[in-house]
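Per-record layout

source: Pontivivens nitratireducens
name: Methylenetetrahydrofolate reductase
length: 306
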Amino acid sequence: MSNILSFMRRKPETPVNPSVAALLDGFSIEVMPRTAQKIDDFRAILPPATRVYVAHIDGTPIEDMVATAARLVDEGFTAMPHFPARIIADRAMLADWITRYADAGVHQALLLAGGVEAPRGDFHCSMDLMETGLFDAAGFDRLHVGGHPEGNKDIDPDGSDAKLMDALRWKQAFSERTDARMAIATQFCFEAQPVIDWADRLQGEGIDLPIHIGVAGPAKLQTLIKFSLACGVGPSLRVLQRRAADLTKLVLPFTPDEILTDLAVHKAANPGFGIESVHLFPLGGITRTAEYTQMHGQPTAHTATA
């Protein structure tokens, strides 16, 4: 309790922009088991009930994943582990993972193809996982899927987004024919306009799944550029490249002020805008990212999306 109270007593050190605070309300964040071990108590840095994705990096034992998710649940958070399709061997392994998580009090999942080039078993993509029906059978009540506002050349090597759009149409149809509550959690971006254009295009295509837009938390510029290149961030990478060319800013930490402000202004003016929430990638460290949300959001109990 004392840790929760210590979080709630913290006051923003800078004036809060109400639109940005509203956009950050209900934010999610992610950890890996090895980074979670460095946090003594998540209640000291995150609002109660925050959704915390548990990233499953290839080679991480499922025991470590489940233990991290169970710890988060015990500390009062909503754990959402990754299920990377291409590293799951078969239906039996998938069922085992789902059961382990359910036994730990986890009932939400982020379904992804995964960061490996070729499938190692029966599953190629998140749709293969969804079609098994195993998540519904185990009582999982929320499934998130990946989104790529700037495209993904691994999926659409021709530079289009034809396959990505086909997959999102399929997922939209899945949400309509099942009871699954779904949202799109996206790759991180650095510029608002491509995100706005993409979200508007989805609505025009009849895809109305809520969007949880990926945003990189505060980090060194060199760190962000490294991760951006590794993750295939698209045209918005130019924001970092312009900053890198300015020697006066090269050594200063990068913060997501600009993209959050631009998205918040657009959402305030367009209430039907498809961005529902912000998902933060703590590339500069989860504590630093959590402190950023305390400065720019409202230091109260979380109202995470159900």
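summary: The mean pLDDT is 87. The beta strands are 28-31, 51-54, 78-84, 108-112, 142-147, 181-189, 211-216, 275-281.
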